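A further point concerns the way the authors explain their paired sequence and structure data. An entry of this sort, consisting of the sequence and the corresponding backbone structure tokens, reads as follows:
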Amino acid sequence: MADELTDLFSSQALEWLTNLTLGVLLGGLLFGLFIYGPKWFRAQKLARLAARQAKQQQTIHDLKVSIFHGLTMEFRTTLTLILLPIQHMLMETQEAKNRHRLATIEKNAYRLLSLFNQQMDPNNPDDRFLKTPDLLEKPPVDLIRFHPEKPAPLPNAQPLILLVENNPELADSIASGFTGKYTVLQVTNGLEGWEQATGLIPDLIIGDIEIPDMDGFTLCRKLKEDQRTQHIPVVLLTTTPSTENRIKGLALGADDYFSQPYNFTEFQLRIQNLMDHQRRLREWMQATIFRPF
């Protein structure tokens, strides 16, 4: 009888202890929800609000970058189209009065570019092509003959430059400043540039990095990786004065890199130096290969 009472008491005590424990846990849970629940819901609401604001700010930032890029490209391209004819005329004009007028226009165009850069991107310093150039007393040597028609130009003794530029006005302005020494073939997209480069093997390639179908970076990389074209000098053009883009282009194998607008006299001389280097290399190889033993 005593054992039965002991077992009954123990069973009731265990049940009571279990119920008490569950009650304490449930009470603690309810107390925690009552005290910390509103704070947790508030924190979650603030986190969602912060994420929404961050997404909105990123969208606004991306929109600003897109607008800035488009405006910068249009402004610098337009300014290049203004400066190139002025620089062509400076090379062709000997009269002091007209040279002074043209130099004044050119100087103020570069000043306008400097002000634009300061307002649009004050942290980006002017690169080496944005300074007002020194004017030469004599025009430089003639550089190229322009052939805009396609397909490929007729064979002749002049070295061939392939110009890959989708802005026809800019392409015409660049090519017209090279009249007399080189043949220029214009194409308007990277894919056509690749096909002409591998088919014609030009002496030099000038390409804008912002061209359709295949951008200038991709075109440069393919040219430098292909055994048929890896020896051809490649000059990249861009409307974005970005050090990152310049490093990227040079890392891909570009032989030179210009941000528009640039000084056309310097541009001509750099092209001429690359072409002269290619010519001297060919002459040395021919003399070495065919040298009698």
Remarks:
- Residues 168 and 188 are 8 Å apart (CA to CA).
- The two ends are 127 Å apart (CA to CA).
- Helices lie at 2-92, 96-120, 168-176, 190-200, 216-225, 243-251, 264-289.
- Residues 2-92 form the longest helix (91 residues).
